[in-house]
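Q: What changes when shikimate-3-phosphate is included in the input?
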Amino acid sequence: MSEFRVRSIRTLDAEFPVPGDKSMSHRAAMIAGLADGVSTVRNFLPSEDCLNTLGAMQACGVKVEVLEEMPGFGPTSMRIHGRKMQLAAPTAPLDCGNSGTGMRLLAGLFAGQSFDCELFGDESLSGRPMGRITDPLELMGAKIDCLGAKPGCAPLKIHGTKLQPIRYELPVASAQVKSAVLLAGMFCEGVTTAVQPADTRDHTERMLESFGVKIRIEGQAISIEGGQIPQARDFRVPGDISSAAFWVVAAAALPGSRLVIKNVGLNPTRTAVLDVIERMGAKITRTVLSSDDGEPIGDIEILGGPLKGTGLLKAEIPNLIDEIPVIAIAAALAEGKTVIRNAKELRVKETDRITTVVDNLRAMGGQVEEFEDGMEITGGSPLHAASVESHGDHRIAMAFAIAGLFAEGETVVRNTACVNTSYPGFAKQLAAVLAGSKVAADYDLPAVPVQP
Ligand code: S3P
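A: The predicted holo structure follows.
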């Protein structure tokens, strides 16, 4: 079985990129696939999750010409031939792998088609709640059977039908639910509105707008008029701030370190992790270099220092939900208490991330109290090496690799192949960090041209 073996490092002084943003890569595959014309998508994330979404679009007749790829992983730049909102019926069930985003957004997209299709995923995805999207989609008239052994879970059999627009108040602050409703709304006559209880990542809105689709935003109500056709364009996916977060924590917690991460997405609905790590005492400079594709993109520089505990604000939770495992590592390395509450959503991610973080931190000597909706971490006592399990969860595997960089002895993180669902190249960059490399090429994630 795959594993990381990690020992402590003394400093981190490097400059490197992280691969393309996962949330945006899913959306780029879908929206370019629906568009009128040929879009060029660059810096696409060639992770298993996003490749499954791309594969689903290809199964619906979307033609993809690969221009560049990350060897061993998959395409990073491609031309996507949009189908002008006319998808073809797939001939077999569509595999969403480990991806909640892939399955929930595709369900929105497929609910209003004139064909039936089936979406399935791996064991983890087959245990995650789908009622949160089937509820609003059924209010729109969709017919979806949850075929899983667990009620309300995948596989999803979607019987495509004509949908009615709705105004839907989301019971959870979820960009996936908001996006599923908006994507379904594209295939309705009339205006569909999703009202979110708090800010969530707004990539769907921004990307649709950059593809020429009009979106109305009034407070927390986001509306789309059906029947609009996205217009093909070129889109460059920024680096993934959620992937950068692992290295942000590694550098922040090591006094004397300096790390620059280039061309990363700095959308304010995603950067609360930087606010938190700054509050804990690190110095972080963010420089926005462009917003050409509707998404701010720039460089971040992190200077490490002694960290202190903090509390996460309720309003920050949806913004940094994916970064909480690695924020918990920062908390264990900080002096004092860090309180994470209002984060019950963590229990329905790729694993129950409250339990997996608490168990693994305790195994490494961390002091943690578990709550139903979070945890309290008392930092400052040294971490020691342990053998910890990812339980097949990419963010748990990577967060505990970072913990191992601060622990006495050799930490083994077991079952790490899952990192390929979001971060191809993580193992290479981890090896360069462990070797103390200052050679840029050791951190590079090459994209090489593909001959037609
Ligand atoms: C995502 C939204 C978040 C996040 C997930 C990606 C997206 O999930 O945790 O990793 O791309 O829309 P929820 O919307 O379910 O909170």
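Observations recorded in class: The chain has 14 helices and 23 strands.
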